[in-house]
Amino acid sequence: MKVAVFSTKSYDRTFLEAANVDHGHELVYFEPRLNLTTSILAGECQSVCVFVHDQLDAPTIKQLAKGGVRLIALRCAGFNNVDLAAANECGITVLRVPAYSPYAVAEHAVGLILTLNRKIHRAYNRVREGNFSLDGLLGFDLHGRTVGIAGTGKIGEIVARILHGFGTKLLGYDVTPNPECEKLGMRYVSLPELFAGSDIITLHCPLMPETYHLINAESISQMKADVMIVNTSRGALIDTEAAIEGLKAGKIGYLALDVYEQEANLFFEDLSNLVIQDDVFQRLLTFPNVLITGHQAFFTENALKNIADTTIANITDFEAARPCPNAVSTDRLRP
Ligand code: NAD
So where are the chain's domains? Predict the structure, then answer.
């Protein structure tokens, strides 16, 4: 099948080419993100292959359908950037990679917790400057602290397993409790209880209307003083302006983000020679107790291989008209 691959980075190409060896699809690579303007690049391709920041809104999907596209192959798990109703209306199938390495994201989340707590990022810079002072680097033992995990699916469960090893107490919130987490001693509670009882809150639920701005001014007011908040899920789970107020007031003691509400304008690109216009993001960078990574939690070689293998297998299933276990139901409402 002829596939237009959007948002291509060199590493995507490397892993997709390797995965495609036994499948023989014709992959046409494009660096730009897919949106209405760039949709013309899909040309005569029957499929588009896209990532988290490609914009598959109704006008783009309709344009793609007119050009003969019948498949959207997502190289990610989340599909909040796809207008599923429009895909359904246009008879376009949407396939995704539901799991590629929950370990990658979980381990990054724990890495953020450890780094932010023990200020390893600041210590690294200090030592290189010949500054061996410990002032400002005081951390706390994770052992005995309470961690609240919102969303205890594949990634949340692994975070729970790792943090259980550190001797933390675990609180959980999920619409469907996970028995494996309960076996670790996790206590499922309501969201307000999780907010009030946790020293560290880490987010692993999907972005949906129900979880949009889960962390907001009201929920922050329910939290312990000096709370640590970690988001490796989706940016819009946090109302960033409310988080900034919480940081300024000293209520939030630590904030670690791998995702950011307006990240589509920033992440995955080298903007180091430009003036960044996002004042909210720039304000975040001024806090000594904020640690940001640019949506890299997934970025391990294991994950990239799994993403490529599953994406190519999905395209082959579609071409062979086989039922694909990774189909996104397009008759549900857009999350
Ligand atoms: P998953 O589907 O295995 O788990 C999600 C959990 O959230 C499920 O247990 C589900 O019941 C729960 N949930 C659903 N609705 C909820 C609600 N309203 N309130 C609370 N919990 C709810 O997904 P996963 O593989 O663990 O991934 C979790 C999230 O991680 C994804 O949605 C994605 O946004 C994010 N993610 C980020 C990266 C990254 O690189 N930063 C990579 C992959 C995934």
Answer: 2-100+301-328, 102-292
pLDDT band, residue 193 (cuts 50/70/90):
very high
Name the catalytic one among 53, 145, 261, 263: 263
Does residue 194's CB lie within 6 angstroms of at least one atom of ligand 1? Answer: no
Six-digit token string for 227 = 């709370």
Give the mean pLDDT of 204-212: 94
* Within this chain, domains 2-100+301-328 and 102-292 share the same CATH topology: yes
DSSP-derived 3-state class of residue 209: coil
CA distances from 176 to 43, 151, 153, 186, 299 (A): 43, 9, 9, 13, 28
Whether 332 shows a pLDDT value over 60: the answer reads no
* Total residues found in the chain within this entry: 335
210 annotated active-site: no
* CATH superfamily assigned to domain 2-100+301-328: NAD(P)-binding Rossmann-like Domain (3.40.50.720)
- Euclidean distance between CA atoms 335 and 114, whole angstroms: 32
| Distance in Å, CA 269 to ligand 1 centroid | 25
Residue 195: CA count within 13 A, CB half-sphere = 15
Whole-prediction pTM value?
0.93
Q: Can you tell me which atom of ligand 1 is nearest the CA of 206?
A: 32
- Predicted pLDDT at 78: 87
73-94: per-residue pLDDT in tens? 999 988 989 999 999 999 999 9
Residue nearest to atom 20 of ligand 1 (CA): 174
244 C-beta closer than 6 A to ligand 1: no
Kindly give the distance from the C-alpha atom of residue 78 to the centroid of ligand 1, in angstroms, as a whole number: 8
How much is the average pLDDT of 302-322?
97
pLDDT at 333 over 90: no
Domain 102-292 CATH assignment equals 3.20.20.80: no
Q: Assess whether the C-beta atom of 211 lies below 6 angstroms from ligand 1.
A: yes
Select from 97, 105, 182, 268 the residue to mutate for testing ligand 1; criterion: most ligand atoms less than 8 Å from CB. 105
Ligand 1 center–CA 206 separation, angstroms: 4
Least reliable range by pLDDT among 196-200, 237-241, 256-260, 262-266: 262-266
Is the Cβ–Cβ distance between 191 and 171 less than 8 Å?
A: no
